Amino acid sequence: MIRLSFILVVIAYLGTCEQIGRRRAVPVIYLRGSHYDVGYDVGRTFSSVIKDFISTYANLRDFEKEYKTDNGKQAYDKTLANMKKRYPYYLKEMQGVADGAKVPFYQLFLLQMDDIIGTINDNHIPRNDTGGCSSIGINNSEDAVLAHTEDAFSETLNHFYIMSAHIIPTQEDKELGAREERFASLCYAGHMPGYTMGYNANGLVFSINTLSPMILKAGNTPRTFITRALLSAKNFEDAEKILTDEGLGAANGCSVNMIWTDENGQRSLYNVEMAPDLTADKSLLNVKKFENEVTIHTNKYLRLHLKEVDGPIIDSSNARLDAIYKHPKPKNREDLQNILSDTSRQDFQVFQEKEDSEIKTIAAGIFDLGEKTWNIYINKPNSSEPVAILPIMFTNLGK
Ligand SMILES: *[C@@H]1O[C@H](CO)[C@@H](O)[C@H](O)[C@H]1NC(C)=O
Ligand SMILES: *[C@@H]1O[C@H](CO)[C@@H](O)[C@H](O)[C@H]1NC(C)=O
Ligand SMILES: *[C@@H]1O[C@H](CO)[C@@H](O)[C@H](O)[C@H]1NC(C)=O
Q1: Range of 387's domain?
Q2: Where is the Peptidase C45 hydrolase domain (predicted)?
Q3: Which residue among 338, 352, 380 is best mutated to probe the pocket of ligand 3, counting the most ligand atoms within 8 A of its Cβ?
Q4: What is the CATH number of the domain that holds 385?
């Protein structure tokens, strides 16, 4: 008997350390309610995934260490105070996630601060920076498609879900500026929706690429709050206003790929590069509209002139751009699926699946605007079927 229970303990122990590999699962949760309630249901439903992510994500250990320093605490407090003024209802949504998942709020807030807190005491380069994503958008007479690989630290593999939400703000939140929102977005566990890929009911489909300016503005708006707010955008002008964030401005950087469809079915393809503005209380933006062209973006600035980090994020971006440009100019969805599946390079790959790479493609998304579908692939999109196909519902258009 003693021997048997010993063996059972060993088996149970091995069970928890087991490498579960790449799961072909796309959890989707449909939600309706106030910001807090929607957050709470996400937290309650995905508690184990969120807890597991928080306990294994190496960067968070680093953010917690910085948070214990004077500079780190100051940056945290200033950011939180600013977000209480600017986006109090998104803080309530985060509090809902924390309460539902039974995890401390400050850990979720540190995830949102990301490189802002990570570099607060030591802003050296080369830096192993977060992110790695490739986005390609096309709009021509044949197809309108946005294709995106969601690349993240390997801990994020199997630690994401999709929120399909209808937010009905409380009266109190409405008075603070909250809007009714309908959107679907992929979320890394415990993170706000918006900083990955998704769509909203007002005609927007989007994807995000992390960018890493060298100099950040601690205390300003974390990019993830700006991309959370982007889910409420009514049209391109509104999106531009949200990204500009007048009076404060982005603390860190990213690139936003957008295809907007208007009520007449006309489509416009944009890429916006965003960075902290070191001379004004707003974000620095470079907006480019693509007329019957292809937009391609990885994790380095292509148009804004500023000092960015160097390190693997830039090496990987250059390698992926090089691999992408070796393909003929993409004309349709099939071309895009082939490009996203490229693993031709030894160092960095467009579809990053090598066992030992720190950054991995956790999912690929193909937004097909002709079909009005969002196709999510876990394996290479040119040789596997999408694991999930979500409808793109522009329910607010023409209202
Ligand atoms: C950064 O890279 C170095 C060298 O490759 C590695 O030792 C370290 O663990 C990395 N840090 C993080 C947070 O991944
Ligand atoms: C997108 O493609 C359609 C069809 O070719 C075209 O009518 C429209 O002008 C294009 N939009 C842009 C912004 O290129
Ligand atoms: C998928 O695309 C890659 C190029 O990125 C190509 O080498 C490979 O042959 C394609 N696979 C299939 C099954 O079409």
Answers
A1: 2-12+26-36+130-391
A2: 139-382
A3: 338
A4: 3.60.60.10
